[in-house]
Amino acid sequence: MSGAADGGVVAYLGPEGTFTETAARLILGSQTPEELVSCGDIGEVLRMVEEGRAGRGVVPIENTLEGSVAATLDALAFDTDLLVGGELEVPVTLVAAAPAGTALDEVTEIHSHPVALSSCRRWLSSTLPGAERVPATSTARAAQTVAETGGGRAAIVNPLAAERYDLEVVARDIADRAANSTRFVVVGGSLPEATGWDKTSVVVFIDENRPGALLQLLEIFAERDLNLTKIESRPTKAELGEYCFFLDVEGHLADERVGDALAAVKRTHRDVKVLGSYRRSGARRTDEAERIAADDRAYREAAGWLAEWRARIGS
């Protein structure tokens, strides 16, 4: 990274009014909106942080319905040395919004991102069966278009976008599935301290494509009683048919068990890249933190026992 990072600036995937802005505002808390900078794509967010123009960046990494955001995974694995320092899950709440005074039966066009249109298919079929569905690059862009053009148009957006572009909500909670959320990650130049309720993300490059290679990798974590919350393969972009594996493991890099497991992975595979080690989203479970602490003590005691015996060699 060049220059000193501006810790007061948070870059996010724009435009204004997106779910990513909502996530960034939640991360900022009481800090002022002027500290938020909208970026055109995920690469621009990361470049701002790398170049020191922002202290942190916020990008989406996974959605309940659509799965992982490939652009974010690939950028973290291949294009940057920035680290994930936190995560936040934001419920996806979709509303239909239109210029003030527009009634639902007047809507002839409905604008939104293709994913949002797909997520509201049943509502659209039953409520606006004759309306043309117009795809947009984002829900926020759809809100902007409808606000500027009006005339029987509506947009499927999040509540923030409706507010930002002075649209009136004409229908709420219109998604086909209520349980939908997007996970966002905060990227920066360092790793936070362990909290006892953490997650470590890594990408592992298998040394060769052979039977049992993935099993050997998974056994390393199973032997240490470490829970993997995510396993996903992605092309390495080096050779056709060559893949790497993205893993999320419960625990922090500072934990003895996690460190021991990653050291074993490093010994047995071609390469390992740590993408981040950070507090998990959701409420912390006290029993889990106590179990991790107890396991770490056991690992430290075992290491101390071994060191004592090794000290006798040659004495």
Notes on the structure:
The chain is an alpha/beta fold and 315 residues long. The chain folds into 3 domains: 1-92 and 181-190, D-Maltodextrin-Binding Protein, domain 2 (3-Layer(aba) Sandwich), CATH 3.40.190.10; 95-171, Periplasmic binding protein-like II (D-Maltodextrin-Binding Protein, domain 2); 191-315, ACT domain (Alpha-Beta Plaits, 2-Layer Sandwich), CATH 3.30.70.260. The chain contains 10 helices and 15 strands. The protein has helices spanning 19-28, 42-50, 70-79, 114-119, 121-127, 139-149, 159-164, 213-223, 256-268, 286-310, and strands at residues 10-13, 36-39, 56-63, 67-68, 83-91, 95-98, 109-112, 132-135, 153-157, 168-171, 181-188, 198-205, 228-235, 243-250, 271-279. The strands form 3 sheets. Strands 1, 2, 3, 4, 5 and 11 form a 6-stranded mixed sheet that branches. Strand 13 and strand 14 (243-250) form a beta hairpin. The longest helix has 25 residues, at 286-310. The chain is elongated. The mean pLDDT is 87.
Describe how the helices and strands are arranged:
Layout: E1 10-13, H1 19-28, E2 36-39, H2 42-50, E3 56-63, E4 67-68, H3 70-79, E5 83-91, E6 95-98, E7 109-112, H4 114-119, H5 121-127, E8 132-135, H6 139-149, E9 153-157, H7 159-164, E10 168-171, E11 181-188, E12 198-205, H8 213-223, E13 228-235, E14 243-250, H9 256-268, E15 271-279, H10 286-310
Parallel strand pairs: 1-2, 1-3, 7-8, 7-9
Antiparallel strand pairs: 3-4, 3-11, 5-11, 6-9, 6-10, 12-14, 12-15, 13-14
